[in-house]
Description:
With 74 residues, the protein is an alpha+beta fold.
Amino acid sequence: xxxxxxxxxxxxxxxxxxxxxxxxxxxxxxxxxxxxxxxxxxxxxxxxxxxxxxxxxxxxxxxxxxxxxxxxxx
Length: 74
């Protein structure tokens, strides 16, 4: 994992309410999928502002963070 990817991971973790707020984590080629205990802890604006994040989609308890090809798996 590159330093850029580490920075993205740290920032995402911070702005989703920390590790204790993550129930499950999955990824595909372009997205990081998080099931959350408390979706209200998510700071959507801060996540969108992270360099490398292309967008987010949030449903009731799941958050998809769009990172682009290959980045989500790292």
